[in-house]
Amino acid sequence: MQDIYILGIESSCDDTSASVIFNGKKLSNITANQEVHAKYGGVVPELASRAHQQNIVPVVQQAIEQAHIKKEQLSAIAFTRGPGLMGSLLVGTSFAKSLALGLNIPLIDVNHMQAHILAHFIEEEDCEIPPFPFICLTISGGHTQIVKVSNHFDMEILGETMDDAVGEAYDKSAKILGLPYPGGPLVDKYAQLGNPKAFLFTKPKVGDLEFSFSGLKTQFLYFIQKKEKENPNFIEENLNDICASLQYTIVEILIGKLKNAVKQTNIKHIAIAGGVSANSEIRKRLQLAEKHWGWTTYIPKFEYTTDNAAMIAITGYLKYLDKQYADVSVTAKARLKVTE
Ligand code: KG4
Ligand code: ZN
Description:
By secondary structure, the protein is of the alpha/beta class. It has 2 domains: 5-121 and 304-321, 2-Layer Sandwich (Nucleotidyltransferase, domain 5), CATH 3.30.420.40; 134-299, 2-Layer Sandwich (Nucleotidyltransferase, domain 5), CATH 3.30.420. It is built from 9 helices and 10 strands. The chain has helices spanning 45-66, 86-103, 112-118, 166-176, 184-191, 214-230, 234-265, 280-293, 310-321, and strands at residues 5-10, 15-22, 25-33, 76-82, 107-111, 134-139, 144-151, 154-160, 269-273, 296-298. Helix 3 packs across helix 9 (310-321) and helix 5 (184-191) packs across helix 7. The chain starts with a strand and ends in a 19-residue tail after the last helix. The protein binds 5'-O-[(R)-(carboxyoxy)(hydroxy)phosphoryl]adenosine (KG4) and zinc ion (ZN). 5'-O-[(R)-(carboxyoxy)(hydroxy)phosphoryl]adenosine binds at residues 13, 140-142, 167, 170-171, 182-185, 188, 274-276, 278-279, 306-307.
């Protein structure tokens, strides 16, 4: 077998990341997070692209160094073409193009949403690779989708959110509680210490495979406002229970949709992907689903849940094997469906 080294570059939102994958195995995966957004309660696009400009050269250098290779050994450069913030995408796209041209090696464009799913194909000792077809619940700050994956590049969206993404629901609710951005991991942390049945939130009534989170967010806001009027210390005194109850409702919604997808497709190989797949409760509930409903579940390593370049590099590797190269005239695309 040929020795194939792929450099992956991810810059779609607020993480600058670079990774080297060698024949399907990760050699390095370096990410520079941007702390600058925390105090604004969300990602500020202008600040994100500026930080990518500052971070991209050292991050790529570090990824190559940690892989113990020389850049001349690289077989191709893979980069995130979209979806994402245009200013952020342009930094990675331009950098990848220049490096590929300079080294005279193929350039490979990668769809960020496909990459979240294909992260499952990074060869890891303690992780099984899902067999086709499988169902993937892709849950991130920008997306909530149930995808049927029939092959590496044959994906079909079975259902998705009609409004907010689940990560957004986490982050916006966290903001209402006065927690910094991104609030998802913090809500998860406090939830683990609280009573999930302390407060009751209603689930939205939408189609079998569709999601809606904007109603839950509004319901949560009104609930907190009402309780704070009665007791100004309500959040402080009940933070764990509030987070646990919110998390319970969100995970109930997600698991319910997966059950519907299994019923409709008869596919019992279930994967999760995207930033919210780091969530402790969804992981626990999927492990229970293996026991109770005979599903086989595929849960990514934490390192591959939130945005990272290893997922871009593995997708680049799979496209390289298939000779799916990009032309240098390729441009970043802010809106890109998982099927494009
Ligand atoms: O995939 P990702 O890094 O970026 C996008 O492509 O959107 O996902 C980020 C999202 C954020 O909304 C963040 O709050 C959420 O993932 N997240 C979590 C957890 N870790 C990250 N949400 C709930 N529980 C977590 N443990
Ligand atoms: Zn993402």
